[in-house]
Amino acid sequence: MAGHLTTLGHDVRFWARNKVKLAWLMETRSVQLTGAINDRIELADATDDLRRAVRGSKVVFVPLPALAHQDIASRLIPLVEDGQVLMTSSMSGLGSVVFARELRKSGRQVLTAEFPGLPYGARFAGEGTVNVPLVADIGHTNVYGRGIGVFPAQDADLVVDVVRDIYSGVHSAENALACAFQAWGPVLHPALMILNLTSIENFCFWDPHEEGTTASVFGVVKAIDLEREALQAAWGYRVTQSKVARDYYDGHIKVYDTWPQFRERMVRWAWKDRLDVKHRYLTEDAKFGMVLRLSAARVVGVPMPLTESIVRLASVLVGEDFLCTGRTLESVGLGGMDKGELERTLAEGWRN
Amino acid sequence: MARVAVIGGSNGGYAMAGDLSLRGHEVYWYVRDARRHADVLAKASVDVVGVLGNATAHPALVSTDLGEVLCQAPIAIAPLPSNAHRQLIADMTPHLQDDQIVVFTPGTILSSFLAQRALDSSNNPARVTFCESATLPYGARRMGPSLVSINCAVTYNPIGVLPSVKKERALEMLLQLYSTFVPAEDVLDAALNNQSPITQPAGMVLNTGYIENVKDFHLHRDGVTPSVLKVEEAVDAERVALRRALGFSKPDYPMKEFYVPGSTDDRALFTNVIQEVNESVDYQEFYDTYMPYQGLKHRYLIEACGQGLVFIKTLANQIGIETPNSDAIIRLASLIMGEDYLVTGRTVEALGLGGKTVEQIREVISGAAAV
């Protein structure tokens, strides 16, 4: 993200906690991007001093997994400035609400919003280089063509105005929860892990996106996606097409690309994480993303038995009951409300 | 030496007809499909290799006539997958005789009870004793037209008797055939110590991608990593909770003991299975002379999930035990197989035990009360 936005001419101040691991970046501020973007870029700043990165920025992007939200929020809140836009991009959803909740304590007038996932597929490829095989609709920097979530949603126009200067195609979803329902990580990743468990543990070369996506595996993914669509419908939100469930068969819906092309690129770009059960495919996508959907499903009485099955097995594997420890509406301060009350809160924020 | 009927041309049928004949018993062997079993029908012999030795066995009779086979022996054993049991029971019921002992090895789950009910509602007035063991006494594969490889033999095989009053007589006769039989309280006690519903469905589901992609899958060799074991243990804990709630005590033959010998204070049905199976060069999980690679359409899901795990889940739920882990495996297996096992499988309702309390179930299963 820092690299891509620099190539678009923005003044990017990059912050990372780990000074040792990213010493090369902090020293040189220079990164070679390969893949969908081929450019050598020079960051405006690269620092482990969060204050230095945040000060004077118009937008603060937090492209980190949901696991890190709470920690980053508590570091960030004392530093943010009135009028800034704070944006998360985790596929798990409701990052904007987590940050907004922390902000209430500070009294700062900061806008919080979220992407329905990271707009990039990217991996470090050794010192000095980042592979970016995937950029969401790079032509007009339209993130997914799907809406971003703004919390509270009444600030949507303000946020969209600011973010459009960076990602020109951005528009807003109904609210943060509607945005959360659009992400496809929770549909795809946990099922791929669970249905390829032994292979992932036995063979370092086994890629669940490639070898592991067989007809039956895809059937499960598709069925999980249908539960997601039913959830969107029950909440009265626009039913968005998940790239995985449709493109694989149809191939004509433009999101990243068609699914077969997506797979090909994933593989070509050495998308070979060393996976294990502690990978964020389970510890984020199941624990935060799927659990949130189950929690939202209970409010509207929609059954999601497959989603539940995957969460259950993921819980056993990680040794932690995700239904208790994961991201629920309750855990972000939206508990104990019926649908109407929840939607009012998503639109207007908390009262008092 | 005993006269015994072996019912079925399964892997287990080949092993059992061979093994019992070699040990001097008079074996009457029924195979249904004349084409599939042409070789043994013509030669009336079967070649046995593996852990019990290598030799050619000569059953007294190999026949496609079930009635002819059943009238020859006071004991009949059916080593068939339980998804074949309904048909077998229907075919067998008219031929059963007074005092005959019929054994399902195994009955995944309660085929003995189904057979008793079928007999009760038939015109056949015979009084028959039905038994059911936790497992097949072997790990075996048919390797050729008349060749079977026995790769491991059971150590403990719990067996229950229906009705319970016939327990002593039945066990006395059956122990002549297999010294590994261990008396269980009743047929349900024995059936709920079958590990297949635990190891097989979870082992298949968690390897879906590999099974479809690699087409050479061996559950015990390739399919069990620490994480798979974790899931199987979670599913197994639900089975053990059910056993306790029904009043059955240890041994529970826990799944973990099967893969990690000595890891619990309990024991396993097979003590050395992993080593024996893995050392055997000719053991192939999916080998079948007359069928191509079955992939996921295998009895490890069709039988062990549809007939076994579904029963465990529905019975547990009926008496107030939650089974979230079994639920997850059944749900995924149903989706993968395109068949809702909670509808088509062997549920408590399908066995006529729906709505019954623990006491009522125990009474019916012991044969002391009618359904």
Gist of the model:
The complex is a heterodimer of chains A (about 350) and B (about 375). By secondary structure, chain A is α/β, with parallel strands linked by helices. Chain A is about 45% helix and about 10% strand.
Proportion of helical residues of chain A? 40-55%
Q: Which two protein chains have the largest interface (Cβ within 8 Å of the partner's Cβ), and how many residues from each?
A: A-B, 32 and 28 residues
User: What's the overall average pLDDT of chain A, rounded?
Assistant: 87
Helical region count of chain A?
17
Largest β sheet strand count, sense and barrel closure of chain B: 8 strands, mixed
Q: How would you describe this structure to a colleague?
A:
- The complex is a heterodimer of chains A (352) and B (371).
- Chain A has 352 residues and is α/β, with parallel strands linked by helices.
- Chain A is 43% helix and 12% strand.
- Chain A has a four-stranded mixed beta sheet with strand order 3-2-9-8. A four-stranded mixed beta sheet of chain A has the order 5-6-7-10, with helices on both faces. In chain A, strands 1-4 form a two-stranded parallel sheet.
- In chain A, helix 4 packs parallel to helix 5, helix 8 (185-194) packs across helix 15 and helix 10 (215-235) packs across helix 14.
- The longest helix of chain A is centred in the middle third of the chain and has 21 residues, at 215-235.
- Chain A is globular.
- The two termini of chain A are 36 Å apart.
- Mean pLDDT of chain A is 87; it is low at 138-143 and 248-259.
- Chain B is an alpha/beta fold.
- An eight-stranded mixed beta sheet of chain B has the order 5-2-1-6-7-8-11-12, with helices on both faces. In chain B, strands 4-3-10-9 form a four-stranded mixed beta sheet.
- In chain B, helix 4 (85-92) runs parallel beside helix 5, helix 11 (226-246) crosses helix 15 (304-318) and helix 15 (304-318) runs antiparallel to helix 16.
